[in-house]
Amino acid sequence: MVEQYEQSWAEEMAQLLLDIKTEVEQLPADQLALSTNHLEAYSQQYDKLIDRGLATNPQPSQPASKRGRKKQTPPKNLLDRLQKYKPETLAFMYDRQVPFDNNGSSGTPVIHMICRGWPCARPRLGDHKGTPLPQKITRIPREPQ
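^ thats the sequence. predicted structure below, dont judge the formating
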């Protein structure tokens, strides 16, 4: 998103996620999550960046004569996913046992998805075990409603 679509919010989001990851890694071994104050502060920063991104990428307008879904830009799609799946995206912040990347060993980190413009495919809680990502994402199927 940063390079291809020149989205400044995406660079700040990537930096925020890296900052959270660094702080979680520096926690003492007996502490499983960040303090409540840190959790709230990071959550508010995350929401502000999402709001800023949504202001930069508004819902596209469509003529009344056209039917069907409105086509959105990739940055708008990423923002919608980051907003909808906030608990899954920030799961590593609430529980240090949840890996930062997709599968804990060789997955593609969320940061790279944001920076390179790939669709954000964070797993749901508990799905991070044994589900390797392909080396090249060509198509992501629709999620069941």
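Helices lie at 2-5, 8-25, 36-56, 74-84, 86-89, 91-94, 110-116.
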